[in-house]
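Limitations

Structures in this collection are predictions, not experimental determinations, and the ligand pose is part of the prediction. Treat each record accordingly. The example that follows, with adenosine-5'-triphosphate as the small molecule, is included so readers can see exactly what is and is not provided: the inputs are given verbatim, and the output is the predicted complex.
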Amino acid sequence: DSNFQPSYLAKLNVGQRAAVEHGGGGIAGPLLIIAGAGSGKTNTLAHRVAHLIVNGADPRRILLMTFSRRAAAEMTRRVERIAGEVLGDKASIVKDGLNWAGTFHAIGARLLRDYALDIGLDPAFTIHDREDSADLMNLVRHELGFSRTESRFPTKGTCLAIYSRAVNAQEPLDDVLRKSFPWCRNWTMALTQLFAGYVEAKQTENVLDYDDLLLYWAEMAKEAAIAEHLASRFDHILVDEYQDTNRLQASILLALKPDGNGLTVVGDDAQSIYSFRAAEVRNILEFPHQFARPAEVVTLDQNYRSTDAILAAANAVIGQAAERFTKNLWTERRSEEKPRLVTVRDEADQANFVCETVLQEREAGTALKAQAVLFRASHHSGPVEVELTRRNIPFVKFGGLKFLDSAHVKDVLAVLRLVENPRDRVTGFRVLQLLPGVGPSTAGAVMEAMATSLDAVLGLSAARVPQRTEAVWPAFVELFTGLRDRSSWPADLERVRLWYEPHLDRIHEDATTRRADLLQLEQIASGYGSRERFLTDLTLDPPDATSDQAGPPHLDEDYLILSTIHSAKGQEWKNVFVLNAVDGCIPIDLATGEEADIEEERRLLYVAMTRAKDSLHLVTPQRFYTHGQASRGDRHVYASRTRFIPASILENFSQVSWSDRRDPRAGAARPEVQVDLGARMRGLWK
Ligand code: ATP
Ligand code: MG
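Predicted complex:
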């Protein structure tokens, strides 16, 4: 019946529906959805994918790229639900078939393994996270002698940042240094040499860093034969949050779909917040004219997420931007409740305010899960985490996660990675030095032997390792051989833990909590079909940390969301708190900020505010602790309200000041003395 209209279409507005139906369910010309926060972009994308599948597209031939693994999983669930309306029982083809959904990096890793043999890569390559990459950069830096001969040579972190920017922005080193690292311009020659060494080291060791996953993909797609093969794999390619992609990612899309047919990208230029990772807002602005046939452009202007009071405040903030964003969002959701600007004395009070308000809202019927606390950087939530823990309020923290960064978790994963790829030196150093008596030089010698033949190393008689190591060497060799020969996933991980536990007690304090982390890791591993997939996923997009040492909260439990603003992208909650809405935090570091950076900070606040559906609190502590910014060190500073809310737009907020009622100091007047006890203490020694 050609008049049949699935009911999911009826729920969409005119623009959304045009985007969903663009091309009539077949392969269509390029499509761009560019629209403001909460206007249903992601929702429209999910409908479009469902609509394609309902109209016969093969889910296995759809490539869906989102900015996190979580977003991809969420999208897949939604598509299944929407398509289920028409497909009924057959909707399981979505879950079973839509398996090319993930981040650019994760998809890149899979494709590179697929084509490894065609492009001169060993398919057993392992992936370095940023820390490993910095360590390898450091190793090469030492080997080239820069750290010794050249005083004040850029740190390993800076070197990696420069390298990474040059790769992602696809810009010559000179330009990168001039624009973003002017204080390193004297080092152009040395850096060029260093990066050449770094690239060579990665190849010798068969490791790829994050940037390589995009770079190799882009380069591979330049080979006509591979490009054709790749392009024919995917009928449809859809990308969410396109404003935060970089030049390399755009070039990959172009190589995959040179005519743009089958390509849909979605985004909001007012929410571009990743330029520090070389994201390029021009990608989305240039998209319409990139192809022989101009792209269809759909804009959406109705916001379905927030109340008019919240939207007015968010619009006022972005309305002050130097750059004009043409979108004018409106909403039908009326509310008298303006977003609140809450002044508190310091970060401790901020934590108390958040906890009390969260509990009040829960009393009033808003589940913890429907509430989120957002902050600029991971460490800003410290005081809130402490207070939540003290009050037994469960929470999950997204972004900037510490779980996988913790040494013991990395140790255990490193063992698995070394088995996968014995040439990886950074990993080898890490693992071998877990053994008592093994220092960098022994580790280096063993790694060198390993590079030629793993068996030679494993066959090393205990007599040839340092004396202190003799006793533990056989167990290590046995573990290694076992993992290699009879690998049985996910039991491998347990074997590593059992081997590691005696060392754990020796190397780290609080072995008990650390052991709990390792059990949690085994829990996570049980959800993976293969060791390789587990290692890749964890390296690229770590799971979220929780307040609960025993493991992530069960899905039916209620927990508060803590998230960096960057990781909150695309999400929404009924009640949102934004911590530290003060100058020095949002925007961060006014001293070195260039105009463009400040503008990105404004968009960051805009992204944070537009996460809220019903109520929004921007908290401004009058005293605020800064962490070593711009070499000024850690210190308390007196802070004032963020410059992004100037007096001229204050009318969009209701201003309240909050003080801790349980704090006996709050009511009483301050004592009228001024003493400097520090001077007195120093005086004691004069
Ligand atoms: P962001 O810019 O933050 O990523 P977005 O544009 O992707 O936002 P969505 O997350 O897709 O917006 O949608 C925001 C909210 O609006 C969601 O709760 C979604 O279910 C709802 N929504 C979207 N379209 C409609 C519609 N036509 N009718 C009712 N609700 C809608
Ligand atoms: Mg979205």
